[in-house]
Amino acid sequence: MFHQHHSHPSALSHPSRLTLADYGWDTERERSFGPSRDEGLIPGRVVRAERGLCDVVAETGPVRAMALPSSGTSERLTPCTGDWVAVRPAGPATSATVVAVLERRTAVVRATSSRTSHAQVLAANVDTVAVSVSLADPLKLGRIERMLALAWDSGATPVVVLTKADRCADTQRAAAEVAKAAPGVEVLVTSASTGEGLDVLTAVLAGTVVLLGPSGAGKSTLGNRLLGEDLLATGAVRDSDGKGRHTTAWRELVPLPHGGVLLDTPGLRGVGLHDADDGLEHTFAEITELARDCRFADCAHTTEPGCTVLAAVEDGRLTQRRLDSYHRLQRENTYAASRTDARLRAELERPMKQISRQVRALKQSPHFKV
User: Fold this and answer.
1) What positions does the entry give for GTP binding (predicted)?
2) What is the pLDDT of residues 125-183, one digit of tens each?
């Protein structure tokens, strides 16, 4: 049954000593799950999901359960790391099975790399998204903004964690630069090697925490420092291109000794936005604010007269880089939405079809010369 939360610094290597509360189960979840117990189901949290199988931590201990295939009508039916699920325990002749995914409070979702309308849920029921950025490499503000849009859109609270501070000559300047690209977000400077900033980071992280960032950002090393044990695989960064070796090949959930849960993710080669309007609004909060005073309600902030966003670029309140990044991510988000919205897709394709028709007509003209 449900137990109140208590921390077990020494229990991390011994999952059998942990309770569901150590993984984030609370009284509200227990209350809503009640009726399912009458059907012989037990609650659990997915700590790893791959190829139709889930490693689930349940009140009876760790369970390896089959995941029923999705009906194709709902993304929610496919369990992912962080999901709370209803499990039918194994019988004499049957395997344990995940029969339902409980309602997600939050979800980190990205567009798949393929040209389809599918979204990929990276993590569910996350409270804090720690966007990890290595100070050993040149800052890529556009990538940070992209990650923040993903984080804000999930419904969780984003935090930017600057790692490898011991390898940066001017951490103060770097943090100030990142802060301009992350309005309303706490920016923390840390070093897993020296321990700098780890106390502050531990105090800021709350609930289920996901580390998000590219390979080589030092996520797993940082995670191990937070856990107090080397439970997450780490690897050297290649000197040739500064990229990590994707040592984390799957997403996995581990309780933190001071309370909360850590979700380590693979280094993300690319993060596509999927229906992230709210995330972009938060990430570019100052542009959203400026846009309210534009002359036209549907102002695109490109060449329109009376555009307060362009005026802010003119007088230096807003950088051209920031506006360009906003436009780029907005275009990508609109295109991603168009893949799932037939009417919007038709609207976007119409101008291209008109241009194609004009080009064909021009080529057929007797006056056309190559």
Assistant:
1) 163-166, 213-221
2) 999 999 999 999 999 999 999 999 999 999 999 999 999 999 999 999 999 999 999 99
* Residue 340: C-alpha distances to residues 115, 143, 149, 331 (Å): 11, 25, 20, 15
Known binding-site residues equal 163-166, 213-221, 294, 299, 301, 307
CATH number of 107-264: 3.40.50.300
Q: Give the pLDDT band of residue 269 (cuts 50, 70, 90).
A: low
Residue 44: beta bridge partners? 58, 85
**CATH fold for domain 284-364:** Ribonucleotide Reductase Protein R1; domain 1 (1.10.40)
Residue ranges of the annotated binding site for GTP are: 163-166, 213-221
CATH fold for the domain made of 15-101: OB fold (Dihydrolipoamide Acetyltransferase, E2P) (2.40.50)
Domain chopping of the chain, boundaries: 15-101, 107-264, 284-364
DSSP string for 114-147: SSSS-EEEEEES-SEEEEEEETTS---HHHHHHH
- Can you tell me the distance from the alpha carbon of 295 to that of 125, in angstroms, rounded to the nearest whole number? 40
Annotated binding residues for Zn(2+), written as ranges, equal 294, 299, 301, 307
Residues 45/82, Cβ–Cβ less than 8 Å: yes
293-323 pLDDT, tens digit per residue, is: 999 999 999 999 999 999 999 999 999 999 9
Tell if the pTM clears 0.85, that is, is over it: no
